[in-house]
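hey can u run this one w/ alpha-D-galactopyranose bound, need the structure tokens asap thx
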Amino acid sequence: MLEKIRQEFEKRFGSHGDIRAYFAPGRVNLIGEHTDYNGGHVFPCALTLGTYAVARKREDNKLNFYSMNFESRGIVESDLNDLVPTKEAGWTNYPKGVIWAFEKRGMKLPVGLDVVIYGNIPNGSGLSSSASLEVVTGLALKDLYGFDVSMIDIALIGQYSENNYNGCNCGIMDQFASAMGKKDNAIFLDANTLEYEYAPVVLEDAKIVIINSKVKHSLVDSAYNDRRNECETALKELQAVVDIQTLGDLTEEEFEAHKDAIKCEIRKKRAGHAVYENQRTIKAVAALKENDVETFGKLMNASHVSLRDDYEVSCEEIDILVDLAWATEGVIGSRITGGGFGGCTVSIVKNEAVDNFVSTIGKAYAEKVGHEAEFYVVDIGDGAHIL
Ligand code: GLA
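ok here u go:
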């Protein structure tokens, strides 16, 4: 693949000079959903799918972007004096946002760049194609211009640009997983302190399978921001009666004891999800360390129920996939993954049951929904790196 992207680069921008290549992965979250911006824990892993960038510094101020995923757009031209989000800039708002955020941190690019991007994460699947684009841009800037910035900072800069340049108030999970992933490991991250630990995912007799529902409902970003606001209000209400910084500070018992301080049933459900999901994530990682995959699976199932009923970020198509998975032989656990309102499910499936899982659910989903789902057996890959 890399060879093809390099050739495309040379075709568009010429073969002279110091051309370099980078990769940043997408992610799948195993458990800990909508907890990151609530001061809780997440447990994602990096995929081997992701975004490639082939780039070279220029001698002037121009920024030239070309994506092999949006060929019809051709080269999108801009320059370093034009770091303002616009509709016309389309997908280039992501790399431009990262350049803008680097500048905000005092890392101003002395000259522009030419870059060709190619991503193999299915569009709109909720597997973090935008975070991987932000992180691959950050890594390219670090390497091309020699900026002294850590991979964790690249993740934070990516999140900052998404929040402040691209208008989605996302948490840190996706960029962190893309920047810091490790082959065959998931990352147990405390999103409040950014303390993290790698946990080997050795499922001897099972596989992680992602199903892409191939639906993406509109209003994803606005509904996401709504959930955040509801949780922030609930936190303020709780802070009137208990000394906490985030919802992640509460155990289930503490939440039950104080939840009546939240003056609205919907906000109570939202905050309850954040508290219980955080505790489920801590328990799930402990179970995995004990090799207790059954318990891990049960916690995944409970996570789905809570995201469906209390956090209300699932949708009909995703619930169909999860219900089908729960009814299929050899499934240890299954849930929605990512921001929600479409996208993907993640399941743990016994090795010998995978073929049947794919064919049975594939057929039933197509019959019920009217289009096919896509299945990927997950390989956990490394975080962003220079190629
Ligand atoms: C999106 C956001 C993440 C996280 C998840 C939900 O992927 O980018 O920060 O909040 O949704 O867990």
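The longest strand covers residues 44-57. anyway lmk if its weird
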